[in-house]
Amino acid sequence: MLNIESISKSFQRKRILDHLSFQVEAGEIVGLVGENGAGKSTLLNILATTMKPSSGDIYFNEWNYRKDRKTIRKHIGFVPQDIAIWEQLTVEENMVFFEKLAWKKKSKQQLKQICLDMRLDRWHDPVKNLSGGMKRKLNLAISLIHDPTVLLLDEPTVGIDLKSRKEIGAYLRKQATENGKIIIYTSHDMDEIKELCDRVITIGEDRFYTELLKEAGKKVLSF
Ligand SMILES: Nc1ncnc2c1ncn2[C@@H]1O[C@H](COP(=O)(O)OP(=O)(O)OP(=O)(O)O)[C@@H](O)[C@H]1O
User: Fold this and answer.
1) ipTM reported for the complex surpasses 0.85
2) What whole-number distance in Å separates Cα of residue 172 and Cα of residue 169?
3) Are 156 and 143 in the same domain?
4) Which of 80, 96, 104, 177 has the greatest CB tally within 10 Å of its CB?
5) pTM to 2 decimal places
């Protein structure tokens, strides 16, 4: 379980996140929604341990984000908004490169299967020859190499075609339901959020998304 206790974050005295508290149980997919600049990426970065909150505490199972950062990192898969892959290398070489950095070992066949699960079959192609959507699929595949328990996805499906998005959505649902993964997911696509997420957290003063999602029958927690 992820337990977020009253976290706040300010940049140069400007408060972006203001005392957020919530919990996410194993097996849940939680959507993170809000207007541009509301603080969604900031919150994901904090949960991914790549940024520290100004105040507040976070726990993952029995571990505390302040004291057990290294252990927690092993369990987190993070897909930031910016694509971070090697353009000159092939899909295979990228997967092998990132597998070497991962603490869990995978065979080439397993790495290839992760790509196939993400609907990416261009194993031998250099990344520079892939489309934007295919690069996003590779980014997602890389985040899954070490079998993370917590998946933090920052607009992971931007530019991915609808059919692949549905298939990736089904894959994520299966990961949550059958393997108890925690998935926190930002998107500006409300249809996707409505379809995929069990619950939604909205951030920001604008109540537009809160109203929209409540009308659609979603459970919404607003900050
Ligand atoms: N390192 C930083 N230093 C200063 N300000 C920052 C920093 N990172 C983010 N911000 C500011 O914090 C606010 C929230 O940014 P964030 O990227 O978290 O928003 P977001 O909800 O993810 O937006 P989007 O939907 O556009 O991706 C913005 O005003 C942004 O300019």
Assistant:
1) yes
2) 5
3) no
4) 80
5) 0.90
Rounded distance between C-alpha atoms, residue 144 and residue 116, angstroms: 12
Last residue of a domain, one of 115, 147, 179: 147
Reported as type and span, the H/E element at residue 116 is helix 108-117
Residues 58 and 168 in one domain: yes
Determine whether the shortest distance from the Cβ of 39 to ligand 1 is under 6 A: yes
| DSSP β-bridge partners for residue 183 | 29, 151
pLDDT in tens, 137-159: 899 899 999 999 999 999 888 88
The reply to whether 70 and 167 lie within a common domain is: yes
Whether residue 61 sits in one domain with residue 23: yes
Would the pLDDT of 81 be above 90? no
Indicate if 194 and 165 belong to the same structural domain: yes
List the residue whose alpha carbon is closest to atom 18 of ligand 1.
39
> Mapping DSSP to helix (H, G, I), strand (E, B) and coil, where does residue 31 land?
strand
Reported as a single tens digit per residue, the pLDDT across 112-138 is 999 998 889 999 999 999 988 888 889
Instruction: Indicate the number of domains in the chain.
Output: 2
Determine whether the shortest distance from the Cβ of 204 to ligand 1 is under 6 A: no
